[in-house]
Structure formats: structure tokens, C-alpha cells
Amino acid sequence: MRVGVLGGGQLGRMLALAGYQLGVEFRFFDPHSGAPVGQIGQLVAANYDDEAALERFLTDIDVVTYEFESIPLSVVEFAAERVRVYPPIRALATAQDRLLEKRLFEALGIPTPEFASVDALEDLENAVKRMGFPVVLKTRRLGYDGKGQAVVRTASEIEPAWKALGKTGLIVEQFIPFEHELSVIGVRGLEGREVFYPVVQNVHREGILRRSTAPAPNATPEMSALAIDNCRKLMTELDYVGVLALELFAVDGRLVANEIAPRVHNSGHWTIEGSETSQFENHLRAILGLPLGTTALRGQTVMLNIIGHIPAREAVLAVEGAHLHLYGKAPTEKRKVGHVTLVGTHPEAMEWCTRELERIVTGNAG
Ligand code: AMP
Asked: N or C: which end of the chain has fewer CB within 10 A?
């Protein structure tokens, strides 16, 4: 079995590390010759419009998947004309455009922030009149990790934000004063069988995920069931195959959908050690038509992202139970270069170890 992966970042790398155990082979396509997968797999490094390179990438591949959401749709379509591609292209097209995404939530009856499309200043002004301050203005496309968005709190901030984000191709959303951010990861196989991981609680800073805790300490059983139900609705509608992540805001006991990711997701990295079957293995099982693995929890799990610098390995590994993952990336400001996972059953020990690790990975280790 040979899987072709569009994108060569850490998600692709972790997919391959999970797949090698199952005897699966990989080939990657990425415009950057220094992509993190190059250290562990066969990488075709070429521009997306290089059809000859794409043909080389697709040779003798059984199924293609993607690990990067901003792959041009034309590239995925090119692959789909030759090889099976999962998750389905419609899921990717929807996730690439925040407006389509929000409309899909609406069509499925999944609560989402009030929103409006913005292509001119007056669209934004009218939306603000309706929604009131604050609002969040975002680019419809190519936004990630908090890039391409601005919170608008006063009338004087409207025009500068609109100009800064490019004036057109934008979406404005009601600002949700959420208590918690949650995510749920579902997996759907070729025959429609589904499994779900426990709902996770996420902490972001500057729009970047910092910490995920599984199961989510502040999600009631009702909220978890609702989150899973929403994820199931999306997977059914999209005739989905693979891993799908759904990010949600929890506010006043309600859940409000923020966005989907049709791929393995940062808030699922904890599953490598914290679950019987990782999201990476289950994604591969799904797209290869293999039985899905159990998502049973091995214990309360905390995952911390390592961002912008590489902490001393010795310091991280000195914390009992810490599992260190480094992605082979050079650290630059705000770049995710690794993560650490802690699985435990004793809450007090977990708390202490998490605090200790947090100091180390944020570079405040005294
Ligand atoms: P996104 O790229 O849409 O996932 O946004 C990144 C982060 O910005 C989210 O994880 C939230 O912390 C915050 N955010 C995005 N949209 C909203 C919103 N409508 N209301 C409040 N916070 C938001």
C-alpha cells in the first residue's frame, strides 16, 4: 500500500510515522525541498503547477490524502482524476473558504456565530450595525493560526481593519465571548463506519493553539454528545472518509461551531500516546479501507505545543511521563516546532508535571 500525501509538514511526518508500523509506504509532494517529511520519506519537491512532477508523485500511488489545507484545489483535482483522493474534495473546498464553511454549518442546523460576507466597506459597516461590537473580521481564505484576522472593537477600527485585511474576500463574524474552546475529532471509514475521540479542551494564545486537554475538563456529557453529533452530521453530509476536526466555542452551556479541518489536527496530537489508536493511524486506516481502531483513552492527557524555540531535550524528558515530539523544523517566531504529551491518571501529578513542562516549553524555565 502506497499513500501519496500532499503537503510535507509535521502532520505528514506523523502520518508516515504511524503508517510505517502498518507497512504502508509514503510519497510526499511539497513546494519546499526542506519540508520536515524529507528527513523520513520520499519527497517530490516542486511547484504546484509542475504537472510532470505531480505525475511523478502520483506514480504507483494507491490513495492520495492531504495534510495541508491551503493546497490549491486544482492540484487536488489533478490528483483525483488519476487516483482516489480522501477526504473528499468538497470537504477541502469548504474548509478553504470560511464563508462556505459557515453556510454549511447553517444548512445542517449547527449553531455558528452570526456572519456576513464582506467585499466592500459598507458590507462591514452594515454587519456591525446588526451584530454590534466587537466583531471579528477574517480573510475568507488562507487564514491560519490567527493570521488574516482582526478583532474590531470600535467604529474607528472598522476602516483600518478592512484595509489591513485586503478590503475584499472577507467575512465578519460576531465575537463570541467563549468560556472554553473545544474540538472534536471524528473518523469515518470507506463504508461509513465512524469513531470519535473524546472532546478536547484547547487553549489558544495569539490565535495559536498552545494546549489541549483530553477529555475536556469543562465539557459536560451533554456538550460532548452534542459536539460529536455535529461532527457526525458534517461527515455524513460530506460523505467523508478520513479524520475530520471540528472546532467549537463553549458559551453559556451552548456550543458554537468555529471551523472544520478536513485532516489530522493539532488538537489530536495527544492521541499518539493518549489513545489506543492515534488520529494518524485512524486516518490511514480510514482512507485505506482498513477497520478503524478504538479511540479509547489511556488516561487524562495534556498536549503542549512547542512554539518558536526548541527547549533542551534533557529538561523536557526529565519530567516523568513526558513524550517529546520534535518535527525537524528550524525555530522561528510563532512557528510550531514540536509538542510534548503527558498521559496520567493521578490529577495532582499531572498538574505539577504540566506546569513544569509549560515553563520549559515556553522558555520560562528560570
Ligand atoms: P480561527 O483561525 O478561526 O480558528 O481563529 C483562531 C482563534 O481566534 C480561535 O481559536 C479563537 O480563539 C479566536 N476566534 C476566532 N473567531 C472568533 C470569534 N468569532 N469569536 C471569538 N474568538 C474568535
From this structure: C
Pocket of ligand 1, beta carbon within 6 A: 113, 136, 143, 146, 173, 175-176, 181, 204, 207, 247, 258-259
Judged against a pLDDT cut of 80, whether residue 11 lies above it is answered with: yes
CATH domain 180-361 topology = D-amino Acid Aminotransferase; Chain A, domain 1 (3.30.470)
pLDDT of residue 366: 44
Fold classification of 114-174 is Dna Ligase; domain 1 (3.30.1490)
207: CA distance to ligand 1 center in Å? Answer: 7
Q: How far is the CA of 194 from the centre of ligand 1 (A)?
A: 27
Whether residue 215 is preceded by a cis peptide bond, meaning omega within 30 degrees of 0, is yes
Would the pTM of this model clear 0.85, i.e. be above it?
yes
Strands (E), 82-199: 84-85, 115-118, 135-139, 149-152, 170-174, 180-188, 194-196
